[in-house]
Amino acid sequence: MVNQMSKEISPIGKIASAKDAGNIASRYRKMQDLTQADIAGLGNTGVRFISDFENGKGTVQFDKVMHIFDLLGLDVVIVERGR
Length: 83
What we know:
Blueprint (H helix, E strand, L loop, with lengths): L17 H14 L4 H7 L4 H8 L7 H10 L12
Helix pairs in contact: 2-3
């Protein structure tokens, strides 16, 4: 398989659960001095969704999670184990 990524990727964390994903999003939101209300407004979603996501609720909508990661400047990359 040819690596189609044009730049080197440095992982910032492994996501093994909804809680892991929420922790990463929360950390990066705070690093950008954004409140939950700020990111909710930018993402056209509610503060409740952001709170649920950051607190690891496993039933949040996947497409909204991906949109929030995008707004935070984060990409989600899946790699084979052991790499």
